[in-house]
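Summary for the steering committee. One of the milestones for this cycle was to obtain a three-dimensional model of the protein with zinc ion bound, which we needed before selecting residues for the alanine scan. The sequence and ligand used are listed below.
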Amino acid sequence: MKSRAALAIKAGEKLIIDEVDVSGPKDGEVMVEIKATGICHTDAFTLSGDDPEGAFPAILGHEGAGIVREVGKGVTSLKPGDHVIPLYTAECRECDYCLHPKTNLCQSVRETQGRGVMPNGTSRFSYNGKPVLHYMGCSTFSNYTVLPEVSLAKIRKDAPFDKACYIGCGVTTGVGAVIYTAKAEPDCVAIVFGLGGIGLNVIQGLKMIGAKQIVGVDINPAREATARQFGMTHFVNPNNVKGDLAGYLVEVTGGGADYTFECIGNTDVMRVALESCHKGWGESIIIGVAGAGKEISTRPFQLVTGRSWRGTAFGGARGRTDVPSIVDMYMDGRINIDDLITHKMGLEDINKAFDLMHAGESIRSVVEF
Ligand code: NAD
Ligand code: DAO
Ligand code: ZN
Ligand code: ZN
């Protein structure tokens, strides 16, 4: 069948809006009509050419919500009409990783997903008769896409698509980093570096669990007002701090934070985030994805004296299990998605969403099909 899509033909170029061919779901696969998709920093990272796994031509997008239209043979957990959120971190519930209590990094489709193809090694997309690659197993910049059954979370039907799509990455990554990865306690002290589409969700996760002090750090002063609305108690602009930023933050937090979250992808900031943790127990969670070849460093004494570094993908969430709970949090009013969606547009304007992101003008842009 034909589907409208935004195609990434080459790194560094604008997306092309055109019709692509999508073939039906094979065994264990599901065809989804995408109703809305968010545009995340990671799409821009891949499009820029900095992503070592980025391969072209591809249909990008990994933050969507839609309706199941067709299921392949052997699919048992979904049927046409179900509402779903695509998962770039699958949950098969059978692999060694799914059966391990300490990780959400299901490996069932990891290898083929990384190569931009379905588990049988082929793509369901083509353009002018030539195959086009899938992206992060999702390709939500196409009105119709095909995913493995294990890469879809079934959600309640009353959740609006234009908000639920953000749960496919940004909301779950930020809120999940607090509740699933850090398992942060009420009354904790936290610092969040980077108050964009991810960091603001970390902030609202911290507020939800009852953190005592939430310090936000950003070089964009325009982010202060929104972050305060979402629960930030103190704002620090590094450009206004003279001298050592980590030392300043240790002072602001009365000895260092119980938890820090790096939501930028800057390895220098990652060091500050570790060194502004409390001696003895502070944990620094890395969420930001740094460019290819980047490395982090600190003096080993920082770790010897009880600070630790951890990373998180998709907020540590097990998608099929945890994503429906995050949708409930939104529908129950425990988290706010509406005020983070600053721009909405049709697919024909998707390149504007990237421009707004690069200019620091949007928190999240959403394309509705
Ligand atoms: P964003 O661009 O919306 O936000 C980044 C924020 O950091 C901006 O407000 C910017 O002003 C601020 N910033 C930039 N440099 C800074 C500095 N030196 N000091 C302080 N603030 C600075 O990006 P986002 O969508 O929130 O994504 C953040 C990162 O998270 C990206 O690297 C993205 O790829 C990554 N990410 C990771 C996961 C995961 O599962 N680990 C999921 C999604 C996104
Ligand atoms: O190797 O098993 C694995 C999973 C690697 C993918 C981890 C995703 C990291 C976050 C990327 C940004 C997502 C938008
Ligand atoms: Zn994302
Ligand atoms: Zn698995």
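Key point for the committee: The longest helix spans residues 170-182.
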